[in-house]
Write a structure and sequence with these properties.
- The protein has 575 residues and is α+β, with helices and mostly antiparallel strands.
- 28% of the residues lie in helices and 25% in strands.
- It folds into three domains: 2-110, Potassium Channel Kv1.1, Chain A; 154-251, Alpha Horseshoe (Serine Threonine Protein Phosphatase 5, Tetratricopeptide repeat), CATH 1.25.40.420; 264-556, Kelch-type beta propeller (Neuraminidase, 6 Propeller), CATH 2.120.10.
- It has 18 helices and 29 strands.
- Helix 1 (2-12) crosses helix 4 and helix 7 (116-125) runs antiparallel to helix 8 (129-141).
Length: 575
Amino acid sequence: MRRTVYNELRLAGLFCNAIIEVEDVHFRIHRAILYDCSPYFQALFERWPTKNNVFRIPIVSADMMRLIIDFAYTGSVALIEDNVQELMIKADMLNIMGIIQACSDFISEKLCPHNCTGIWQFTNIFRMPELRCKAFCYIIKHFEEVAHCKEFLQLSAEELTKIIGKDELNVRIESSVFDAILRWIAHVPKEREQHIAVLLSQVRLGLIDMDYIVSNVITNRLVKNDPQCKTIVKDSKCIVWHATHTPLMCGLSNTLARPRVPNSILLITGGWKNNTKRCDIEVYNPLADLWIDVSDKMEHPRAYHGTAFLDGRVYCIGGFDRLNFFNSVDRLDLATHTWQEMASMHYSRSYVSVTVLNGFIYAFGGSDGQERHNTAERYCPETNQWTLIAPMHEQRSDASCTVLHDKIYICGGFSGTVYLNTAEYYDPETNLWTMISPMRSRRRGLRVAAYNNQIYAVGGFDGNNHLSVVETYTPQSNTWHLLSPMLTRRRNFCLEVIEDQFYVFGGFNSLDRTIGSREVYCPSTDSWDEVCTSNMPRRAAGSCVVSAIPNMAELTLPQQSLLRSNLGHDTNFSD
């Protein structure tokens, strides 16, 4: 209120008791307002002698001073991309922390592959730890895109070494790091060729295919002419050879072979192994093609439940243990490794469908052991409460749901009498369900996923046969189309999407046996391939994708291997 009144007085030219002069422009102000804005103005008004209360400031332009005065009076500043960097510099000179923070927040929101390296370098000059950390994290997470931008070529050798040396560097294939080094060197070859050995030592050559090493690394002119590079390549070839005969962990103590820490991993909870209920949690690291047992066991074993990841926590929702049908919810905090029982749902839901949208968890359908539900409810983590929302058109247990364009699609399932091929979507804005075209196949125990503006429906059971059928739904045309089938028929399995790949694991096969095989689908080629086998084949488990948690390294490499390797690498992105 005080600021509003003073600003109105300033604009009216009333009761002003000082003038700020910049470039022959006079700004009539109230000393108390600017005095409260920064230590610079406090010193200006207390120590600098003036005539007629006129204070001349030579270090900023009139346009910048206008913005600064507006901020002092209103607490906000009109930022655009053309003025934010200069304003931040001037605010730093005048020690106006509020403007510095506002500029930092504005720049953080504008981070992209084309400007993130320049912003990171900018924070070398003007110390802004929070912005520096965000810019560096962005570079690490989007490295493959950043490496093709012009600003990337302006990095120093020390800066590039720091970036590619991080375990958290997010790359789909390690060879892209070597390609980026060559592109950086080629920009100023005479000055940069001397750095090849230092840079090559940070590439995880032990994780690269031998054919690429032979065809692209060994034959490279810079590598051939540098003795240190020759030694690095020789060691890498040995690591690659041993990796095909011994477990991957044999190279964890060697930087050349240590897997990168992925940005996202697959996490599975509970389920059955044959006829035994499980409380185990298992993680799949797609970069290292490695399954790892997590020490944080489930407090209540359950199967046919939902698993969701939200704000660094994993929620296990509903399900049953052959005796009880649960409405309970358990939450694992991945940072503190602690379980907590959360508010229960309104209905017991085994064979439940669960997803996350806009900070809420949704649970649909399922069975309480006596009837199948068409009810739906939403969980708010801030209030720890479940709220009933509009019911579905169909009773659905053993269905599957996913999110596309801020709407939730649910497909298939079992009504109690009919194996469903119907599908519908929920709009949280209107709290309404809308039916869409039915799938080509009736199925329960299927899994659906959203990718590239489409819904993919995979596998399941049609009442007679286990399915490998895959079909995709396009909302614009409201049509389904068949794609290449899975390699294995299965139901009640787990399916998650990471980095343009569909990962499928577990479930029942046509003999009602637990499946140990895993497979991965590439949408760009419409093809399936088998990947490594899980430590614990299971069915009716829950799964989710875990992304961007601070302690990701704990979940992606076996703890005993981390201790043996004595890595000690720094995961602090603030430098």
